[in-house]
Structures are given as structure tokens and as C-alpha cells.
Amino acid sequence: MGIATDTLVLVTDGRKMLFLRNEGDDKHMNLQVEKKERRDDAPDRELSTDAPGSVFSSGSSARSSYEETDFHQLEEDRWAHEAADRINSRALKNDFDGLVIIAPPKTLGELRKKLHKETEKRTILQIDKEMTNQPLNEIEKLIDGETEVEAPPEVLA
User: Fold this and answer.
1) 34, 84, 101, 134: which one has the fewest Cβ atoms less than 10 Å from its Cβ?
2) pLDDT per residue over 106-154, tens digit each?
3) What is the widest separation between alpha-carbon atoms in the chain?
4) pLDDT digit string (tens) for 79-90?
5) DSSP bridge pairs for 35
6) Which pTM value belongs to this model?
């Protein structure tokens, strides 16, 4: 069992976004790339300019430092929010009836925070797995495996 014709599939992580469309049917999926985007990570020196801060503890001369901000993670979260904004915009324009989202758990969590109710209504499947570097046939197999309906147990007579 697969997904309906014209279903939109978003495959993303913190660095890549793939928008795919099923041009096949629910029995023979045929994902085609609509759009592919990639961002390059900036070096640490371009993302932060200061060392982690420190603070004196009152009543002693001891110092403790703040944990350094993970700018790469912030950039990945921003990327996930941008993907959600794009998919929300498309849902509000009735660009798709069904949506499949495939993303690693952290990215999927960030996406879910930003999904519009209209997008949520159209989402038929969410898979928490990293698939941006996989060929289309592997993505099709994953979706097909997730949408299979289990056969009812046999009744012994």
C-alpha cells in the first residue's frame, strides 16, 4: 500500500530540504523531485564572536562559565522552521491534499511546533528518520513500509 497520487512529500534535516510529489498511485509510488535546497554550514568563527561568558559566584572568588550556545543547532532549528513555513504556505494555497514528512527526530520536533492546523489536517504520515541522502527508491520503500496495512489474523476453524 502506498500514498495517493499528487501527495506531497517533504524530506528534510537541518541542512537539506527535498520537496517530492507522488506521480504514481497508491499501488505504484513514483516520487519525483519538485525542489531541492541545501544550506552550507558557516564555520564556527562566523557564527559566534565571543567566548562563553562567565560569572562570579557571590561570596567567593570561584567562577562558573555559561554553556556555549550551539549556533549550528540554532541554524538547524531555523531551517526546520523555514521548512514548516513553506509547507504551511502551500497548505493554505491548497497546493496538496496529502502530506508526508520525513525528518530526523529533532528536526521533526521543531517542524511540528510550527505546523499550521491546516497543514496538520493534511498530514497523513510522519516518519522520524534521516533520509535526505537516500535515493528516491529508498524513500519510496520507507513510505511503502510505513503505510502497509497489516493483514487480519487468520481465524482458526
Assistant:
1) 34
2) 999 999 999 999 999 999 999 999 999 999 999 999 999 987 644 444 5
3) 81
4) 899 999 999 999
5) 19
6) 0.76
Distance in angstroms (rounded) separating the CA atoms of residues 97 and 75: 30
Residue 122 carries which DSSP code? Answer: H
- Domains, the chain, in order of start with CATH, read 8-38+71-147 (3.30.420.60)
- For residue 135, count other CB atoms closer than 10 A to its CB: 9
Q: How far apart are CA 117 and CA 42, in angstroms?
A: 33
Q: Where are the beta strands (DSSP E) in the chain?
A: 8-12, 16-22, 31-38, 54-56, 63-65, 99-103, 123-128
pLDDT per residue as tens digits for the range 9-52: 999 998 899 999 999 998 899 999 999 999 776 555 454 555 55
Q: Which residues lie across from 92 on neighbouring strands?
A: none
Query: What backbone torsions phi and psi does residue 105 show, to the nearest 5 degrees?
Result: -50, -45
